[in-house]
Amino acid sequence: MIAPRLRDIQAGFWGAIAGASGIDRDFAAAVAPGPRLDSGGGVAVYAQAYASRLRDVLRKDFPISAKLLGDDPFAELVRDYLLTFPSEHPSVRHLGRAMAEFIDRRRRESPESSRLPPYLPDLARLEWAMNDAFDAPDAASIGVDVLGRIAPERWPELRFTAIPALTLLECRWPVNELCSGAEASGVRPLLTHIRIWRDRDYQVFQAPIDPREAEALKQMIAHAPFAMICEAYGDLPTQEAARQASATLARWLRSDIIARVD
Amino acid sequence: MISLPQLGHGVGLRAEHFSRILDGTARADWFEVISENYMIRGGRPLKILEKARELAPIALHGVSMNLGGVDPLHADYLSELECLIRRFEPAWISDHLCFSAVGGHFAHDLLPLPFTEEALVHVSDRIRRVQDRLRRCILIENVSSYLAYQHSTISEWAFLSAVAERADCGILLDLNNIYVNSVNLGFDPLEYLGAIPRARVGQFHLAGHSDAGTHLLDTHDHPVASQVWNLYREAIRRFGAIPSLIERDDNLPSFEELIAESDQARAIASEVLSDRTAAA
Fold first, then answer.
1. Do A92 and B66 count as a contact with CB atoms less than 8 A apart?
2. pLDDT tens readout for residues B72-121
3. Cα separation of B53 and B31, whole Å?
4. Distance (Å, whole) CA B93 – CA B86
5. What pairs with residue B244 in β-bridges?
6. Among A155, B62, B168, B216, which is disulfide-ready with B35 (CB 3.0 to 4.6 Å)?
7. Residue A164 with chain B: CB contacts under 8 Å
8. What is the pTM of this model?
9. How far is Cα B200 from Cα A31, in angstroms, rounded to an integer?
């Protein structure tokens, strides 16, 4: 009998723990029965460890999604996800990157048979955005005092740089409510903009914002001048627009989401 | 001959103990951290690691270098590791004698190699390339196993020793893994210890395991077992004063309990070494 090559052993091992069809015959023949576990039993230890370890990782990354789905449906989701999106990064931190896309695709492809609730793609996007904010690059935020030193005539041209740990999501469901403990049965579709950010104490937050602030934030992130940011409030009377734009800017500063002003 | 600082008796730093790092009360001779957990762009964990580094020396312990894999060495991974080395100046770095990725996909597990001449040449060459790239000697750790291969031609201990000699690297000897494998695969753990070249051993791992009935599982969720403490005594007799590390990943006790286990390692080492000196 010719000894199997290292390459074949590793391919067979991967198939046995991560594939859909279990242990192939050549790999099974290469594994020796042990004094306590037969060859299939030894492989099963690794297959079970692969499934449970990565399920635990994804449960930590998507805690609300996992809780609302329940143990068995979440395990089924993870099993199918890993077949489509096995880990491609040495750090398990990146394993769940495609989860929202996978859920969305799965619901579209089999809406009748899928037990995945319609809010789940948005909820997974929100939870993943919070993970991204957790370890996004550091950036010191500026305080209100910095703006106080800028001459009023320069304000229309001011451009802000957002901290890297800031994301704006547009969701079809108010999934922020689910993160705040709302009953899933009471949530109805509603276009919702959610701001996700990390403050200077490394705490990650999420909060819904109204459509005007969402538009203003989009402009700020895109590095647009302050005059263009204010256009988000252009449908309001002039004084009210100025008041709301100023209040929004003050809120952003208090939240530590502006890293720089030019 | 591996030459590493004598750091004493450390503990694995886990997120559950971050608050003790922040308030400066996490006292240990040294900390070992999982390299991949800090391969991130920013945020609290890196800040905590900076603080830990101020409190004590650290060692970077990797789980995904895939030293035994047939995929190409992961260039981005090594670049990120180099960044961590530059930033945190670890006392040493270590990874495992196993494979962990296949066809670009990561198992996030430590999968056993066959103990063959082909694997020996392959993994030794990769360790040498990693050491050349990082410009430092690394430690390789023996892993726990739940299966063996029909076509293995040498023992695990002979394989580990030969890899270390051929690659000119150090050995991180995990005594719990030796014990777990001795039960699961049926060998004498003292024969294992007796075959390891003294000059290559740079660190010991001490950890707990679970009994799954048909086999032992390397779960790191219990205190160090008495059989592993006994093996540690033998290891100290054979290898001398080697830095030890308490590894705990699940069912984490208080920081004080971890330190108590670390102190137990210190006391055993001290007792064995003084007996050895008296006997000489």
1. no
2. 999 999 999 999 999 999 999 999 999 999 999 999 999 999 999 999 99
3. 8
4. 12
5. B9, B204
6. B62
7. 41-42
8. 0.95
9. 30
